[in-house]
Amino acid sequence: MNTLLSKVSVAEDRGRPVLDAATREVVGHAPVHTVDQLNTAIAAAAAAQPNWAALGHAERSRLLHAIADDIDAHAVELGEIITHEQGKAGGEGEAHGAAHWLRAAADTVLEPQVLHDDGTSRAELHYVPLGVVASIGPWNFPVMIAVWHVAPALRMGNTVVLKPSENTPLSVLALAEIFRRHLPEGVLTAVSGDREVGAALAAHPGVAKIVFTGSTATGRRIVESSASNLARLTLELGGNDAGIVLPGTDVDAIADKLFWAAFMNTGQVCAALKRLYVHESIYPDVVEALAERAEKAPMGPGRDKANRLGPVQNPAQFEIVSRLVEDARERGARIVTGGAAAAELGPLFYRPTIIADVDDGAAVVDEEQFGPVLPVIRYTDVDDAVRRANNTEQGLGASVWSADPDEAAAVAQRLEAGTVWINQHGGVDPAIPFGGTKASGYGLEFGVEGLKAMAATKVIRR
């Protein structure tokens, strides 16, 4: 029996059902917290924050390490919940990854900065806690991204109220249960509620900082809500990441990386490769190589570790994926492989789909798919490819693929994105800052910059 699940799942008459993404069977029941309960959680967080800050960096880091060890010890149980709720193959890997990122935040050094020292006067820039941080998370990496939010906030002496996605609450509640075992009361509270609770959290006068990962549309609403409390914001929003394959690139050398850049987690990654621009000289070869990999990629329920691709997590997202593919088909695009549901595997499985002979203006190119679909677009001129890649309101990530690293770097400089990868796409590192531009949000996560984002600045002069 999964003891973590039994601790966080409530009785049927006290909660709402949470469904297995692959089978649509009931996994458990999540509590439905109210705005009054949210207010209580924020009050408890505010009361706990001064003492938590007073512990100092060394003690907070020690506790974060203890929590990371506990996550690793329960990674199988936590991974089972992730796989049930989110659908991915590799839930246990996400749990271990969360522990790794937690340790990284605990160990990152952030020292006061000396701004001026002439022997008679001195000015230092210090980073101090903000207070209560609100974390609002997504459903694609529910545990990993919760840690991305929570770890630097706690490390810097803030307390946290954490609201998981309504689609994946149990895994985040289980994560919070592990944190709770090691932290003073009120330092971290998870509140499982509906959109009303999320809106109340974003607008609450007791919240000093909001960190949100999710859609651009929801991000805009959070910005509006935060006007009432002037909370600081870190927003990692949607991305429609473009990749550009330059002429002369060795297709065999990059094909596997290209495919998994687009289809990792069944394409349900904010910084996944969503549009691929390929020079006409190698266009047929790239399309063929991607189609071959799509046809061979093992797909099925995530509880079978042999599977690499799982279901689309929820019916609303499944409908978006289906709509975009059908629109492309109606426009005359070539569905090279896939293009249909894999109903024999379960109600929300969609075959990995490669679409060719499609162009800008098609919905599947202009909109973020967030699913197992990749449009491959032909180009003849690199300048034109850069212009088309930049012709979007979003700017989370982008990539350039080439046998010539200097040529690739020159193109990368021209792309409008928070991160541009060369001969890779979507990889993140706990020491390297990550964030978007344009409508993909603002603020940085990870590393020293991620710690600074969870702090207020204070200048001390003497």
From TrEMBL:
Matching InterPro entries: Ald_DH/histidinol_DH, Ald_DH_C, Ald_DH_CS_CYS, Ald_DH_CS_GLU, Ald_DH_N, Aldehyde_DH_dom, LUC3-like
Keyword Membrane: no
Oxidoreductase in keyword set: yes
Source species, domain of life: Bacteria
Signal peptide coordinates: none
GO MF annotation list: oxidoreductase activity, acting on the aldehyde or oxo group of donors, NAD or NADP as acceptor
CDD domains: ALDH_AldA-AAD23400
Keywords assigned: Oxidoreductase
Domain Aldehyde dehydrogenase: 16-460
Catalytic residues (positions): 236
PROSITE patterns: ALDEHYDE_DEHYDR_CYS, ALDEHYDE_DEHYDR_GLU
UniProt family annotation: Belongs to the aldehyde dehydrogenase family.
Cross-referenced PANTHER family: ALDEHYDE DEHYDROGENASE-RELATED
Name this protein carries in UniProt: Aldehyde dehydrogenase
Origin organism lineage: Bacteria, Bacillati, Actinomycetota, Actinomycetes, Pseudonocardiales
